[in-house]
Amino acid sequence: MEHGKELLLKNIELQKIEKKIESSKLDRKTAKLKLEDILAIRINELGLTKQQLQEKYNVSNTTIWAIQSYKIWREIKITDPEQLLAAEMGRELLKENMRLQRAEKVKLLMLSGKMRRAKLKLEDVRFIRLHKEKYSNKELGQMFDVNPETIRIIRNNESWKDV
User: On the chain, which terminus has fewer CB atoms closer than 10 Å, C or N?
Assistant: First the structure.
């Protein structure tokens, strides 16, 4: 019974918002997006990037930005606590996905030896690990022009863990 009440209240709220949109000064007759789309873009519970949202709703990146920052469609606000929570979770998911993408990109750069900060290449790290007993940290450090502490960290798998 309570679920039915909630559904009825949500429908009433949606109808109020739709009336506001109709009476809005902005001409929305040519709009590609529906009310549900605007809310979905603002909530973004899946944590999609702006580019993914752009492709999903067939609008420009600028439009996605303008919707999310309330530059357009101002009258449509997220008021439902569940939607607010979903929006927050979507933002956190997006942050985590972006962090993972950056980490994957760095990993690929490191593996290819194209990482600018890395003095050592993949082959160097393998050489260092293969010759643990043959050379000291100091000798290997001089060989590769790095600090002996760097060699120790590599040997103990504290760095270059994926190699």
Answer: N
CB 124 within 8 A of CB 150: no
Count of structural domains, the chain: 2
| Same domain membership, residue 94 and residue 27 | yes
Would you say the C-alpha torsion 88, 1, 9, 14 has a positive or negative sign?
A: positive
Q: Which two tokens stand for residue 38?
A: 């605007």
Tell me: do 78 and 143 sit in the same domain: no
User: For 47-84, how does the pLDDT look when each residue is reduced to its tens digit (9 = 90+)?
Assistant: 888 899 999 999 999 999 999 998 988 888 888 888 88
Helices (H) and strands (E) in the chain, counts: 8, 0
Task: Indicate if 101 and 124 belong to the same structural domain.
Answer: no
C-beta atoms surrounding 157 within 10 Å: 11
Which of 99, 142, 102 is closest to 119 using CA atoms?
142
DSSP of 123-152, one letter per residue? HHHHHHHHTTTTS-HHHHHHHHTS-HHHHH
